Amino acid sequence: MMTDLLKLTRDNYFSLEAQRQYMSVSQFKGFLPSYGGCEAQSMAKLAGEWEDSQKTAFDEGHFLHAWNEGTLPDFKANNPSIYSSQGPTKGQLKANFKHLTKLIEVLENDPKVMNALAGEKEVIMTASFHGIKWKIMIDSYNPEKATFSDLKGLQSIDKTFWNKESRAPESFIQHYGYDIQMAVYAEIERRATNNKEWLLPHLVVVTKETVPDHDIAFLSHENIPRALNIVANNIERVKAVKSGLVQPVRCEKCDYCKLDKKVMRIKEFSEFELY
Ligand SMILES: [Zn+2]
Questions:
Q1: 80 alpha carbon – ligand 1 mean position (Å)
Q2: The 120-129 sheet, strands edge to edge
Q3: Ligand 1 centre from 258 Cα, in Å?
Q4: Terminal CA-to-CA distance of the chain, rounded, Å?
Q5: Distance from Cα 74 to the centre of ligand 1, integer Å
Q6: Strand boundaries in the chain, DSSP class E
Q7: pLDDT tens track of the chain, all 275 residues?
């Protein structure tokens, strides 16, 4: 029996109930080991038995997004934990959040960035895709210009990541699956609005380096299908696990698995070779 789907708002978008009823890009990646995901951990999260320990990164992301949305004063007022509570810096923003104000300054001083981030902010959309309901939240939605943008704060633009599965180096875009995120956003927006064409997805990135770097990138329409293929190739497995039809596999690498990991098989040295 189908229960009524939760009507998504900014207040319940990240709630457990919303995660249970809808697929999101981060939830999807959370099931895939190639994106640092783990089926067992994902299922424990959906059951309310496990929470991400990356609260600081989560709060930092929200700080940047609150700025983009124009609600930074509210965010600061509602999140006292971002302020230092003791010592000589008591009452000031904690160092990492103070540094974020520098990132924001960098963004505000670049007209191309402000142009890319113009539009309706934090727009929630849902649509069916691969037989399930997806939810997306677009940072800056600009259908008049046929674009939308997502804002990311990261450590570095130039850092090279090692992909253990493909045994090849990759950029932050592949490493964090931003290509998948942007492609799915384009597809869900297209379905939700009954448009024939995708909007052009843009990524505005700013780094947390001492002197912040920043850049803007777009995902061309010709590369969207390739990213959507990653979803097509993995979604049936994710659906089967999420619905309880198939037992989740433990990755034995994430914090959730490591807590009660037992060695199942003794490995040969060569199994630790990187390539
Ligand atoms: Zn795991």
A1: 32
A2: 120-129, 132-142, 147-154, 200-207, 214-218
A3: 7
A4: 49
A5: 36
A6: 120-129, 132-142, 147-154, 161-163, 168-170, 200-207, 214-218
A7: 456 789 999 899 999 999 999 999 999 999 999 898 999 999 999 999 998 877 788 889 999 999 999 999 999 999 998 999 888 888 899 999 999 999 999 999 999 999 999 999 999 999 999 999 999 999 999 999 999 999 999 999 999 998 877 888 999 999 999 999 999 999 999 999 999 999 999 999 999 999 999 999 999 999 999 999 999 999 999 999 999 999 999 999 999 999 999 999 999 999 888 76
For Cα atoms 162, 166, 172, give the angle at the middle one, nearest 5 degrees: 40
Neighbours of 102 (CB within 10 A): 14
Per-domain boundaries in the chain: 16-53+110-272, 55-94
The SS3 assignment for 149 reads strand
**CATH assignment of 16-53+110-272?**
3.90.320.10
Ligand 1 centroid–CA 26 distance in Å is 16
